Amino acid sequence: MPELPPSLLSLDRPGSALSNSTGPIIDFAPDASCLDVEGLSLAYGGKPALRDLTLRVPRQRVTAFIGPSGCGKSTLLRALNRLHDLDETVSRQGSIRLEGQEIHAPEVAVDELRRRVGMVFQAPNPFPMSIYENVAFGLRLQGGMSRRRMNDIVEWALEAAALWGEVKDRLRASAWSLSIGQQQRLVIARTLAVRPEVLLLDEPASALDPISTLKIEELIRSLKSQLTLVLVTHNMQQAARVSDYTAFLHDGELVEYAPTASLFTNPRLARTENYITGRMA
Amino acid sequence: MSLAEVAGFRARLPRGEGPWAWLAAGSVALSLLMLGGLLTLIAVRGLGHFWPASVSLVELDDGQLLAGRAVRELPLATGQGRERLYFTGNRDIDGHVWQWVAVDRIVASEQPRELVVLERVRYGDFIGRLVDVRPAGSHVQGVGGGEVAWAALQARLAAVDALRDERDDLQRNVIQPLVRQLEKDPGDTAARRGLAVANDRIRGLQDAMQAEVVVLQSVDGRRLVLTLAEVLRAWRPNAMSLPEKMGAWVQGVWRFLSEGPRVANTAGGVWPAIFGTVLMVLLMSVLVTPFGVLAAVYLNEVAHQGHLTHWVRIAVRNLAGVPSIVYGVFGLGVFVYGIGGSIDEWFFSDQLPSPTFGTGGLLWASLTLALLTLPVVIVATEEGLARIPDHQREGALALGATRLEMLTRVVLPMAVPAMLTGVILAIARAAGEVAPLMLVGVAKLAPQVPVDGEFPFLHLDRKFMHLGYHVYDTAFHGDDIQAAMPMVYATALLLVLVVLVLNLTAIFLRHYLRARHGALSRH
Q1: In sequence order, which ranges of B348-479 are alpha helices (DSSP H)?
Q2: What is the pLDDT at residue B416?
Q3: How close is the nearest chain A Cα to the Cα of B400, in Å?
Q4: How far is CA B133 from its chain centroid?
Q5: Class (C level, CATH) for B271-517
Q6: What pLDDT does residue B149 have?
Q7: Would you state the pLDDT for residue B326?
Q8: Entry's CDD domains (chain A) (predicted)?
Q9: How far apart, in Å, are the Cα atoms of A240 and each of A13, A77, B344?
Q10: Which residue of B has its CA nearest to A192?
Q11: Whole-angstrom distance, CA of residue B144 vs CA of residue B132
């Protein structure tokens, strides 16, 4: 796990007093941002879910979104690859830029965007196909790939997801024959196979046993040398273990966003501290 | 339900919980009993028809002799004694084939070995004695009677059978194509010559078949001379051993399945009806599946889930309840007269006023039934689509799939078992429908099946036979109901079996696909 850059660490201001202001407090300015969310508001059928949210996600780091249920963290995650497009009742203001490019621009093809911004869901959702076909699914969508190259990429993706050793002898078996933990790593391998720039993880370990959870967390840490990861989690220990930066959301608003170590050890706002110390559900 | 589950059901029957459980169990038992009774009745009555039953020689108290097969026995209307019904055959010399005899009047009844039964081209069965087999048109003594004549008859009948097959083959494969060719081009001299040669050959075959006659005598002494061409089969039921009878039974069943009908559908087989039923159902499935699946995909995946979609869904479900004859009327008006009439005007105007597509036929019947079963397929597919979890759809989208790719690669393959459930229900409904077919293309007699070696091989404009209609027609439109009843039972049994086979095929297919695509639906 690479060290945090000193420029970011220097932003820590240990010892400052807790503020009762509502925020948001954004405690760093990453020099290399991958995703820029600006003034994002989102409503489901007139019911607001995100309010005027602005944050930047640094490249090749793990950023965690934490907050109580219904705070909008999953909504924000799904907005990042426009999965909320499926719901006709969603209305949106504000912008999201991926590497400087507005993702809602008319010239952006949504399927291409979703290939670049991959997503792993809470419950493992392998397709009812073989293990191999699951990983090759996204590659087949792109088409025009030789059999040999596809085999190589499938192997690479399974290696990257730390699953190759367990499944290399039964690639033709049904993906549904794997254990839940293996299925979740398979889903990650499937997403990695299309070489995304960003990987969104929506509570990826909440359905898993502790050992599988540990494996997924190791995996997340090992992946950040190659891509940008955004993690939504209920589990604050998990956020503290794997993420470099943490954003605390509450009620559709960004409350505090800081390097993980500083947010957990030295929160700036009373609301944040209440949440991480368990005084607020 | 597996056997273990049935046993488990018995074991779980609750005690001391009042009568409701017994009431429910009783209902199930009663339903099963009625179903079993129904199947047993049609199986016994239908399959018994092919058994070569023994023939009795009966002497009555007034010295009258009769030979026949005892069919059933009832108490006399006077309340004293019983009477017995014999099937005596010999319609041409007696004028009837059934005879009721009071049991008291029977002086002697025996089953002599030498009694023969002949199945004939006309007048049904003959029951009596074999006297001689000799060349036609002479009065010279032939081979004589007894075992020698019986052996000779068997040999000659086999020869005549071969000749008959050759004649039918010529008729079907040489004469009919040549005649059609001459209709198109009357100046074709090669065809004309070929036709003359074939006709000569057929005349030769006919003569050969009529070259010998069989001399018969009824038990009361009347003589009958038949050419061998008029005899289809001969057997001596009283001389047959049990294995021989079983062999004859299997042959009888096979002939019933493989041959065309004779004597106004009261004899012969039902092959064209089996073929017509299966072909019509398969065509119906091919037509209804894509329409139903596309409609369900639109309703469940594409359409905005608003009030309009809600009402369309209710309307589709209600369409399933419209009586089938109404669909028949619709098919007649729209498909046959409307579309069929227009096709005739545009493409077959040279054959008008005799209609090509403007009359009932295989295509219109299949389309009508496809319309009838469309709601079933839509509803079943929609339920299957609704059962697929959204995270499967999102998983595909998150990998960069378009909505079309998501549908074709993930959602539809997972919904295939549900679609097949819809098709199974559609087949079960369509294979048994008779009412709409009577309006849009079923025929009482269409011995030519709608598939043959002539372009375009599948003749969608032809009328066809159907087992369900065959049952109706045989039961009500024959003039000899006693002879027709066994055929009705046998055909009804066959209809049940055909539906069963079609359903099982679809169920096995569904099982196979489910195993391949993983067990999503937990049935």
Answers
A1: 362-387, 390-398, 403-406, 412-431, 435-440, 467-477
A2: 87
A3: 4
A4: 37
A5: mainly alpha
A6: 84
A7: 93
A8: ABC_PstB_phosphate_transporter
A9: 18, 19, 79
A10: B399
A11: 5
B410 to chain A, any CB pair closer than 8 A? The answer is: yes
CB distance B413–A111 less than 8 Å? no
pLDDT digits (tens, 9 = 90+) for A20-33: 666 667 766 666 78
Q: Which CATH code fits A21-128+197-276?
A: 3.40.50.300
| B129 vs A274: CA distance, rounded Å | 111
pLDDT of the residue at A3: 42
Which is higher by pLDDT, B148 or B408? B408
Q: What CA–CA distance (Å, rounded) separates B438 from B444? A: 10
Residue with token string 């109706």: B472
pLDDT of residue A72: 85
Q: 10 Å Cβ neighbour count for B372? A: 26
Closest CA to A223 of A200, A246, A248: A200
Domain ranges of chain A: 21-128+197-276
Best mutation target among A74, A89, A137 (most B Cβ atoms within 10 Å) is A137
A115 inside 8 A of chain B by CB: yes
The residues pairing with B101 across neighbouring beta strands, listed in sequence order, are: B84
The region of weakest confidence among A36-45, B104-113, B221-230, B457-466 is: B457-466
Question: Are the beta carbons of B279 and B499 closer than 8 angstroms?
Answer: no
Does the CB of B517 have a partner CB in chain A at under 8 Å?
Answer: yes
In Å, the largest CA–CA distance within chain A is 61
- Judged by CB atoms closer than 8 Å, whether chains meet at A125 and B391 is answered as yes
Highest mean pLDDT among A167-171, B5-9, B260-264: A167-171
Q: CB–CB of B199/B170 below 8 Å?
A: no
B392 touches chain A (CB under 8 A): yes
Q: In what order do the strands lie in the sheet with A90-98?
A: A47-58, A33-44, A90-98, A101-102
Name the helix (H) or strand (E) containing A33. Answer: strand A33-44
Q: Is B37 on the interface with A (CB under 8 A)?
A: no
